């Protein structure tokens, strides 16, 4: 039944209805595939998806021109009528603060020069900002002192209304005939294989928590940070890491003043967005190297997401409070609300993995968002479709890696990776 080369009537099973899963479903359905099923433990937007958030950064300046080109493609899509309801091109301020480590300053220099060097950024998209006065000229709503802040403003960027964009993608999939199975009926617990063909195990689908068998000619695993629970052998290249998210509730009057504020990302503190237009919530996140949850199972030593995402580490709450104090002290008296940790699937070099699982047929994996996947929602499915239709992944950096390769020292991150079980949570000694 399973063949490496799909035809339009072959059954395609996509496990995971997050960013990569929905984008894949959309692209294969738009291309005329007629038999597509998406499984998830929860309806879209699934709380297990890192994309289930009010907003996510959309920017294209990477230090690596490979991803700059892809993100520019994605921005073009975000600007089309299909996606534009969910894109807010507010611009993006990237800075460091007074005591930022040299690493944070260096990454800003590199990403700033990537904008200048790339012909596809509209001219006049960016301006250097050397101090708080420069920043306030462009962002007058920021009342803080922002001592020692410098960096640049990129006008060809903004953010996506993340959860809403996921809901819309699912709606368009449904219109194209994609089936969704959610809850225990959609919670994949085992990959099913049949006897070997040409020395490879043939994947025939998955079993779900309710005991159902979902058979398919092509199974695509898109489980984000949770991928290691279903496919333990990927854990040597994918590490689940989490970052803290919190919110400030603004009144309608306060939100009106902050409206239109570019995304502010201070590399050594954290980032925040303009208030959400429906709720008046400002989302903030702390910048750090991320928290793992290392566990040893019978099959592997792996970092996997915790069962609950509630609350944030105290040290991140402090960073977020410093960010508020320095940029918008008018809100310093407000309590942080809706605090949670968001799990990403990190790879050593921050490259995605989009490949056939070695030693198998009919089984493809799309993983390793590395915390920079959401902006690619409109285009990622195109890459997955290509990998599905090719016998092998021709883009080397997206291939399955048998050994841990690349460095854990991601240039845009500051600080040290810590295990979530070893840090203090606000009000709790530790997370577990
Ligand atoms: O692509 C982007 O600019 C989003 S990065 C957001 C972030 O919180 C990172 O700052 C962090 O280092 C991690 O990768 C998770 O995502």
What does the model show?
With 432 residues, the chain is α/β, with parallel strands linked by helices. It has a domain at 1-55 and 161-238 and 348-401: FAD/NAD(P)-binding domain (3-Layer(bba) Sandwich). It has nine helices and 25 strands. It has helices spanning 19-30, 65-78, 102-117, 132-138, 162-175, 227-230, 252-258, 314-327, 380-389, and strands at 11-15, 35-40, 56-58, 87-88, 92-96, 126-129, 150-154, 158-160, 179-182, 188-197, 200-208, 213-215, 218-221, 239-249, 263-266, 270-272, 281-286, 291-292, 294-296, 301-303, 337-346, 353-356, 360-361, 363-367, 418-419. Strands 5, 6, 7, 14, 15, 16, 17, 18, 21 and 25 form a ten-stranded mixed beta sheet that branches. α1 crosses α9 (380-389). The chain is globular. The N and C termini lie far apart (45 Å). The model has no long low-confidence stretch (mean pLDDT 94). It binds 1-S-(carboxymethyl)-1-thio-beta-D-fructopyranose (FSA).
Note the topology:
Blueprint: E1 11-15, H1 19-30, E2 35-40, E3 56-58, H2 65-78, E4 87-88, E5 92-96, H3 102-117, E6 126-129, H4 132-138, E7 150-154, E8 158-160, H5 162-175, E9 179-182, E10 188-197, E11 200-208, E12 213-215, E13 218-221, H6 227-230, E14 239-249, H7 252-258, E15 263-266, E16 270-272, E17 281-286, E18 291-292, E19 294-296, E20 301-303, H8 314-327, E21 337-346, E22 353-356, E23 360-361, E24 363-367, H9 380-389, E25 418-419
The protein binds 1-S-(carboxymethyl)-1-thio-beta-D-fructopyranose.
1-S-(carboxymethyl)-1-thio-beta-D-fructopyranose is lined by residues 57, 59, 243, 285, 287, 344, 371-372, 375, 413.
